[in-house]
Every structure is written in structure tokens, then in C-alpha cells.
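Title: Prediction job returns without error message
Component: structure pipeline
Severity: low
Priority: P3
Assignee: unassigned

Description:
Job completed but the reporter wants confirmation the result is attached to the right record. Sequence as submitted:
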Amino acid sequence: MPYVQLFSPEQEKQINERIRYIARNWTQSQSDHKVEMQYEVSSLITRMSGFAQITDSFQEAYRGVRKWIDTNYSEDLKIVELANRFGISTSHLRGWFLRELGIPPKEYLNQVRNEHAKKYLTFTVEPMKSIADACGFSDEQHFGKMFRKWNRIPPARYRNNSKNSLLE
């Protein structure tokens, strides 16, 4: 269904109010209401298409932030700064991440960093400090703490286990 448009609860309320107004006042026999009702219907259509453009810009911002995180995860990223960069409020950005992925943007950033850390640990012999830097952690200790929290295993043991499983 290519034209399905999701509206916010506030937008739905406004649209429903206009539809109810049009339905209450719609009369085929009264020509004086005809122009008013044509205006109301065209106004509703315009308003709804404007909502779609707003939603599209939020979605575009969400996609931009997500792509930015995917490619710049090694940098010191702040969600507030990303929201500002893409012209969206942090609450709207959070809402889009929750709606699309089921997690807030910070958690998504952490998942991206964790997945890259696992790849570095599995497929390279880089020291932990280099992996921490490459994945956006301030230092090796913070990297180790977060990796253990996310994976319930220290990074060095993860590396050993993954290397052993590749050899088998």
C-alpha cells in the first residue's frame, strides 16, 4: 500500500476533527455550504499532505542519523549534536529510532560499536587499545567494561573463543 501515511496522535486528532466538521455540515441541497465544504475538503487534503512532508523530513533525518552512526561510529558522537546536525529534535529522533528499531539512538550506536569490536577481535590481531580507538571508546578500560557488559565475556576471551571456533 504505497500511500499509507502514519500520523502522530495530535495529527490524527486534528484530521478527525476536520472530518467530523465536514460530515456534520455536508449538505447537498444548500449551495451556500457547498463552497465552504469544498474549501474544508481541500484544506484537509493540503493539511494532510503537509503532515506527510513533515513526516518525510523526520524520516529523512532519522535515516541520515542512522547512516552517520553506521559510518562514523568511531568518533565521539553525541545524540544531541546528531539531532541538531540533521535538523530534528532529540525527542523526535528518539521516537523514530524506537518506532523503526525498537531501541533509542544511543543504544543503536552502542550496538554498532559492539558489532565492529567483535569483528576486529575475530579477524585482526590489533591490540585492545587500537580496537577501542577504532570503535569510538575513550580508552581501553572503558572498552573492556562496555564489551563485558554487552557480551558477558571479556574482549580477550571473546577473541580467543572466536579464533578457536574459526580454526575448528
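Comment from assignee: result matches the submitted record. Residues 22 and 38 are 9 Å apart (CA to CA).
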